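Reference record
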Amino acid sequence: MLTKISSPHFIAIQLGCTEKSLTRAATATISISAEDFISGRITLETKRLLAHTDFSIGIIAEKLHSLQQILQA
């Protein structure tokens, strides 16, 4: 489900650059790979939704799936 939106390749295409350029920029700026950064952001957002909303895990999963649908458009 999230594999596509969490892919550095997919994000690079959305930003109009190559995956290599995205990874190089992430590593130079924050000293971690683009893949690790994206994964961390998804995890952080999921934890934030669990901690600060009354949403169930199922609802959060649906929201993340909806995000994937929006990004694919």
User: Anything to note?
Assistant: The mean pLDDT is 83. The two ends are 15 Å apart (CA to CA). The chain is about 75% helix and 0% strand. The longest helix spans residues 34-52.
